[in-house]
Amino acid sequence: MTLIASHRKEIPKSSWTWDVTANKLSLGLTFLNLFGDKVEEVPEGFKTTVLEAFNVTEPSEDIPFYRKTQHHINGKYYYIEWVGEAMERSESGAISKMAGFAELGTSRDDFTLTLNQEALFFTRLMDNIKESVYFKDLKSRFIKVNKACALKFGYEDPADIVGKTDFDFFDDEHAQPAFDDEQGIIISEEPIYNKIEKEVFSDAEGSVKWASTSKMPLYDDKGVLIGTYGITRDITAEMQAKEELKASDEKFHQLSEKAPGFLYLHKVDTDGKASFPFVSEGIKEILELEPEELDDSMRPLIERVHKEDLKRVISSIQESVKTQKEWNCEYRVILPGKGLRWVRGKATPILQDDGSVLSSGFLSDITESKRILKINELLREQFESVLNAVPNLIFLKGQDGKFLMANDATLEFFGKTEGEIIGKTDVDLGIDPEMAKKYHRDDLKVIESGEMLFEPENKSTDMAGKTVYHQTIKVPFSQAGSGEKAVLAIVTDITSRKKTELELSDTLHIVGEQNQRLLNFAHIVSHNLRNHAGNIFMLLSLFDMEESEQEKAELMTYLKAASEQLNGSIEDLNEIIDKQYKTESDLKEIKPAEMISKVKQVLISEILSYNIKFIEDIDESLTIKYNSSYLESIILNLISNAIKYRDPKKKSRVKVNLYEKEGSTYLEVSDNGLGLDIEKHRDKLFGMYKTFHGNENSKGIGLFITKNQIESLGGSIEVESEVKKGTTFKVRLT
């Protein structure tokens, strides 16, 4: 796209880059030259105006990117053309970055497209939309169609359709009503919008499709009616899905009348949205819900699930939808009337043509069967408890706390015979009186409530005075014959396991420290190399777009410096890898002033792009013993944050102070950026994954890493900040 020849003059061009995802505009180093020598910085609101123009329509790789903007700067109007193309795409295929050149026009007339340009734009638009677009004369004959329309009728070239009518492609069942609609529009000049049509093709198979069509009257440039034009969208898949759902609804309604539980249809769309197209009346009995309560939300259903089972239930449903495997799950629900109940859900998921997943399912109450199963399980445990071959301590006590039965393991633990234990209490057997009282209270609680009691860990002393650990299960028991209530206890010696757990805990502590070091190293790699790579990438992008040899030479100097800085960081990281672990012993003599200079080179592209001014008060002679990778990471994080959270309405300034005081070395980094409410955020400012300005590039780990690195080497960090005035970080390095 070029300016109209009569208005062109020799005006420099400048490069630009648009981050579509972040909606951010970056301008080339020579951009201000467009406005002459009087403009020293980009005017306030300039980028906002340009981005508004860029976002009028979604950018496309197939249609030339072209925008025009008008600006009033220093009492003068400027007209700018923006021409570009797609540079990068996201994983989903959408354009994520565009780049191009900005060129200055001489008058408002430069904003006029030529007829050829308008024709080119129209043709490309026609050929790159999925809907069928067509124009017809007064006799409903095609005079122009787009490529999608031609392909619909089986033709590669749209020109082959010209002169034909709907009767050449469709059966009269569709062609005649379509013809009547168009003739009615010609008579009334009233358009038809979004009419649902059944398209029956006249091919050998008699293919049938469904479409949504809008038709309008067509006028020439003098306002004379010359025909009609329309847009048709294929909705066959949508109509088929509706028919299938309707058939499923009828089937479920018939089944639900006889089902003891409730039937349902569960649908998950391609965007993850879940809904219930159908729920039978049985849900009233099973979950105490009305079917219509699930019309707009499945929250009422989720709220019924027991909180301890909720995660498992949701995960099982998601896995079933993802794999289209049968869902079969038993879980607890809490009902307003019936309280705790057990239910079993089953469903068969089927992938639909539109990509959604439709599951037909059934939910039933299994509380009674669960209760019987629990009783049988207790009976089985009672039977097995009398077996003396097991190492567990198994014994039976009455309501008075006296032993009624004890197995061999129990006798061995107390060092007693059966006759010395039966009829005795815990106190009689040498148990501490306070502990014995607790045991008896627990026994009575089990007997009176009829519920099992589980104690995962008890510490005690055996008859030899050795410390032992036990795990205890107590269940209610009815004595055979008399039916008197008692408590059956099963005690497992977990001393060996406890010892192993303690040893494992010590081992895990050591492993945890090593993992923390590895994690810290990984964060350094991620942060440091990401900044180096981003700097090089941006400089390369600017180099590719730059035409000026002088500017290219300057960019090449920056690229060389960035490459050297990257190599230096890689060498430092390789040195750490060779030593295997990052510890406080990885220290060497470093001049912080040199590291500050190195970091500024790493960030040179951002410093230039945002015109960052540095104010420095640095003791060049200061030398400290420090970990070089840590120091680079600390300085890089603090300065990059100062740039990242700058105030776009101000000229950004970053102040760096390095000095020695009372035997300690201090580093201060201040900015005049956005700032934040320090009283509100102070406690979580250095937390992992904590962000405060909504910046898409913010990961929420930079300050967390920085604080850990500083404190691991015996230093400290403080922060002061005020909204709209800026932030100051004060670091005591040594």
Question: Biggest sheet, strands in spatial order?
Answer: 2-1-5-4-3
Instruction: Sum up the overall morphology in one term.
Output: flat
What would the average pLDDT be, to the nearest integer?
Answer: 83
Structure annotation, total helices: 19
Rg estimate, integer Å: 39 Å
Beta-strand content bin = 25-35%
Oligomeric status: single chain
| Low-confidence runs of at least 5 consecutive residues | 1-9, 578-584
Can you summarize the main beta sheet? 5 strands, antiparallel
Q: Helix proportion of residues, in percent?
A: 25-40%
Structural class: alpha+beta
DSSP strand count? 27
Q: Please report the distance between the alpha carbons of the first and last residues.
A: 60 Å
What does this structure look like?
The protein is an alpha+beta fold. About 35% of the residues lie in helices and about 30% in strands. The chain is built from 19 helices and 27 strands. The strands form six sheets. The chain has a five-stranded antiparallel β-sheet, with helices on both faces. The chain has a five-stranded antiparallel β-sheet with strand order 7-6-10-9-8, with helices on both faces. Strands 12-11-15-14-13 form a five-stranded antiparallel β-sheet, sandwiched between helices. Strand 13 (about 325-335) and strand 14 (about 340-350) form a beta hairpin. Helix 15 (about 590-600) packs across helix 17 (about 630-645). The longest helix is centred in the C-terminal third of the chain and has 51 residues, at about 495-545. The model is unreliable at about 1-10 and about 580-585 (pLDDT under 50).
